[in-house]
Design brief:
- The chain is of the alpha/beta class and 274 residues long.
- The chain has a domain of 116 residues: Alpha-Beta Barrel (TIM Barrel).
- The chain contains 10 helices and 10 strands.
- Strands 5-3-4-6-7-8-9-10 form an 8-stranded mixed β-sheet.
- Helix 5 links the parallel strand 7 and strand 8.
- The protein starts with a strand and ends in a 7-residue tail after the last helix.
- It binds iron/sulfur cluster.
Length: 274
């Protein structure tokens, strides 16, 4: 039996350079892997996809979300260390027994800024039969990203607002690429969990919530919708980094607001977790 992977070849898909499985470890070690800039990882994550998961947080993000919990991931090269996909996979291998029913999630930052690394890592995960998920803003789409998606079992996608001007105010980027991204997921029949960060005064307008829900409901690849209530737990990082945190005086999303939003989303048949 042979197994295939092709890192560092921008002209081809991740498959297939062939290895004899008996010498797979040696062959993999001998490859010149592209390094990924990594912010951190978590061995037993439970919030980023189904089951217990190894979660890798990549460095670099093109968005500037006002409520970002990880502004230290924004700048490529800052606060990061470099690993090859093979080295990162060695970390995953250590906990493989625990994540067998969960899998591996690559989050960020924005993973699609480093598609070759993610592709290489997911190819290794697939060889070991591990479930793969990518957590993205959907801002970046190109041929490499499409290749990554071919190795992904589940996409976790934030659609942070449905009104373009509000989306831009929240993230500093346009909404349209994210809507095109979810169109592409529908086209390739890729399962997606959509998340919505509920921020009082920013993303809780009732008409907008109806509009958001109506929009998302038209995609049958959407298998789950999570409402993420805003809280102030990310504030300290902004302060520590000397950054201007504009949401300083915004209250956390109350249980009543979350309940109201759930009721609206349910009217459109969105698959909220039970
Ligand atoms: S997309 Fe995520 S990592 Fe990037 S700024 Fe927004 S919340 Fe932060």
């Amino acid at each position: 039996m042979t197994t295939s992977i092709r890192p560092n070849d921008s002209t081809a898909s991740a498959f297939p350079v062939t290895f004899d499985k008996l010498s797979l470890t040696d062959s993999i070690s001998a490859i010149e892997w592209e390094k990924g800039m990594i912010h951190s990882f978590e061995s037993f994550g439970t919030k980023d996809g189904p089951g217990v998961r190894f979660v890798l947080f990549m460095q670099g993000c093109p968005l500037r979300c006002l409520y970002c919990h990880n502004p230290d991931t924004w700048k490529v090269g800052q606060h990061s260390y470099e690993l090859t996909a093979h080295e990162a996979f060695e970390e995953i291998r250590k906990v493989k027994a625990f994540i067998r029913r969960g899998g591996v999630t690559v989050s960020g930052g924005e993973p699609m800024l480093q598609p070759q690394f993610v592709m290489d890592l997911f190819a290794l995960c697939k060889m070991e039969g591990l479930h793969t998920a990518v957590d993205t803003s959907g801002f970046i789409m190109n041929d490499k990203v499409k290749e990554v998606l071919s190795l992904v079992d589940l996409v976790l996608l934030d659609i942070k607002h449905i009104r373009p001007e509000r989306y831009k105010m929240l993230t500093s980027r346009p909404l349209e690429p994210t809507l095109q991204f979810v169109d592409y997921l529908q086209k390739i029949d890729k399962s997606v969990w959509v998340r919505y960060v509920l921020v009082p005064g920013y993303s809780d307008d009732e008409r907008d919530l109806h509009h958001w829900a109506e929009y998302v409901a038209k995609y049958d690849v959407v298998k789950r919708v999570d409402i993420l209530p805003f809280h102030q737990m990310g504030k300290h990082k902004w302060k520590t980094m000397g950054m201007n945190y504009k949401l300083e005086n915004v209250p956390p999303a109350s249980p009543e607001l979350v309940g109201r939003t759930e009721r609206i989303f349910k009217q459109y048949g969105l698959p909220l977790p039970v």
